[in-house]
Amino acid sequence: MDKSDPHHALEEAQALAEALRPALHRLYRQLRRESDDPGLSPLHALLLFAIMRQPGIGVAELARMEKLRGPTISGHVKVMERDGLIMRSEPDPSDRRRNGLIATEKGQDIMRSMKQKRTDWLASELAKLSPEERAAIRSAVGPLGEIGQ
Question: Which of 3, 4, 76, 146 is deepest in the core (most CB within 10 A)?
Answer without folding.
Answer: 76
